[in-house]
Each structure stands twice: as structure tokens, then as C-alpha cells.
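Order emerges. One example.
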Amino acid sequence: MALTHTPPGELGSLCPDFHLPSTQGAQIRRDDLRVAPNGQRARAILVMFICNHCPYVKAIETRLIELGHEFAKLDVSIVAISSNDATRYPDDGFEKMREKSYPFPYLYDESQSVAKAFGAVCTPDFFLYDADLKLAYRGRLDDSWKDAAQVTSRDLAGAITALLQGMHPTRDQKSSMGCSIKWKPGQEPAI
């Protein structure tokens, strides 16, 4: 497990386009996220890179589910994407992903092209966009990846709430950390 921290987000950058299969059988496109599950125009769009096997993701999985439920009835679209090499990490393969029951779509980036387009580096890696698909937040979920009882700052939830209130999240964004994306041999992005 290689501990990796996310770089600072390029705030204002446009959300990359994508088209990926979900574990629920649908094909999800970036522009589908412009409409929140409640049928309203999304004012916040969260794209997160996670996977099944990463201990950092496992430690926050319940909090991710809670976050999904918390914002499900608001003008927020949320998707999770797994981009890991399923040949070397079979727990991250599409069939194993189907065993999860997240309250948001879980997408499979088999080619790893979407992770590259986003510049994702680890699991978890959070990208929060405003209604115009401009990056507003790239940071951590909260201030205690390992122990939910120790959380004192829900950074990502605060950023989502700021967008819902018509404000910009703080520019003082703390990096997320986790296991590096497991790239297929020869697919590692250039540094």
C-alpha cells in the first residue's frame, strides 16, 4: 500500500467528460449528473474515486454511505468511480463492485482513461464541482480517515453545503490521502 496525498485542486477547471457503466446496469455520462436524483438541476456534483480493497476507503465506507443519504434529496449528484487494475487487484473488478450497495452510482473505469482525465491519484480522491461543472473542491472527506468517532471537521460535507447555499467552499482545502491508483502495467500517467 503506497500512501498518496492528492495535489491541490485546479479550482475552476472543467469536469472532464466521461461515459461509464454502473454496477446497476446503467451507462452514466458526465452530463447526466447535471440533474440531481431529486429531478432538480444539480447545484453540486461530486465525483469520487474509490475502490473495494483500499483500507482507507474501507475505513470511511460507512461515512460515504451516510454522506450519500444526507444529500440524496437535495440538489446534489454523486458518483463513485473505481479505476484500479482488476487483473492485479481482483477485489476491485466489476463483479465484486456489484456487491456494494451505495446510495449513489458506482462506475467502472476499466480503461483507466477517466482517472487519467481527472488526474486522480489515490483512493479516495474527491472532486466537487458546481452547477457549471467547475471544480470547487478537491480535498479530504473529514479530519479523521481512520476513526469516525474522532471527526471534528466534515470538510467535504461543508463544501457541498457551501455550494448549495450559493457560496464557494473555502480555498483552504486539506489533501485527501489513500492508496495510490493501481495502474495497469504501462498505463501510469506521466508525472
Remarks:
- The mean pLDDT is 95.
- The chain has four helices and ten strands.
